[in-house]
Write a structure and sequence with these properties.
Number of strands: 17
Distance between the termini: 41 Å
Strand order of the largest sheet: 2-6-15-16-17
Helix content: 25-40%
Radius of gyration: 21 Å
Shape: globular
Low-confidence stretches: 1-26
Strand content: 15-25%
Mean pLDDT: 89
Order of helices and strands: HHEEEEEEEHHEHEEHEHEHEHEHHHHEEE
Largest sheet: 5 strands, mixed
Structural class: alpha/beta
Amino acid sequence: MATGIAAGVLTMLSSAPRPAAAQSAAQTPAASTVIVLRASRLIDGTGGAVLSPAMVRIERERITAVGTSLPVPSGAQLIDLGNATLLPGLIDLHTHLTGDERVHWEDGLLKTTPAYDALWGARNARITLLAGFTTCRDMGPTWPFVDVALRNAIDEGLVVGPRLLVAGNYVSSTGGAGDARQFSPYVEVPMVRNLADGPDEVTKAVRTNLKQGANHIKILATGAVLSKGISPGAQQYSDAEIQAAVTEARRWGRPAAAHAHGADGIKAAIRAGVRTVDHGSYLDDEAIALLKATNRATFYVPTLYTSAAIDRPDSPVPESERVRSRQVSAIKDAGFRRALAAGIPIGFGTDAMVIPHGQNAREFGERVRLGESPMAAIVSATALNAEILGLQDQLGTLRPGKLADLIAVPGDPLADITALERVRFVMKGGVIHRHDASH
């Protein structure tokens, strides 16, 4: 399963060029091929004991040693981060990096262009990386395949941002969660062809997305909070349609993720074999039992901070969708608590652009507020998310041989989880993108 999920990605991770063409004040080229980091403590992403004091040696793009005291080779660059905590680069499984976050997505087709959204994507990608998220799964743009172009630009060193795995386009039913055509039926937007009804159309949509460069498929199994279509609790795709998407994605060696709020849609997606159930607001005991039975083949990925973000004064979300959010807020909190009590693994996602880009780490505070330990929350955004992506051999923990994705935050995030909102150092693949003077 992990091999299929990682198909076409591991080569990118191990051979992506350093973004020399994208140097900026926030990105510092290494003075040496060997860098040694020193900090007061280290959380390695596995959930094990904190290492204190801590040192990490990086050679080119890889970690080569981790310990409390390491020799500093002659000519190496030593970076002393002081009273800071080193952690693996964070991973967000649910982002929407392309587009202007000030424009509600249902208005995007009439108020933006693909080029405009791509430029905003470059801005959003940089902000996300500097916030400590070195890998993201992007879950679909308003304008199809702009996320593919953004991923490629990052890989080629043209744009600074996290490693991206992208969906290319939503797969949604007419009138469903991904139907952005909220205007007169006599207005046509010829570039957008994301709606698919019936197993045959769903299969074709999956093939189209994968042909155009998608890493995974996103199917909208239920209604959404932020759309005027079918209600969030209702299953919008039939079991057969969801199964068609998963089956076709598997033929290509790729995973499928399901946007699913309602309990029926969640369970249909799990039975179909999706890799993740995203949002999962109405998660019930039967759904949890189904997740357990998959033996870590399918994972629940909630997005909790969205409720607060949607109700902020400057949010572009219309009042009708704000009402939906308020109705679902307590329900999704209860679902998360139910999952915690059951002891199932819980992936980490944020739904950024619903939340402002760069505020991804506020999700940690919501999870801790609802009863998760700070360490478990950190593991979810590091080792567990790497496993979900099938990239656990490359990412997610600070171990020799892994890619050198590291961040540092002031103080101890186990004592104050909000420290993760104050990232001061970011390294991706051995390249320093952020190094604030004070820690």
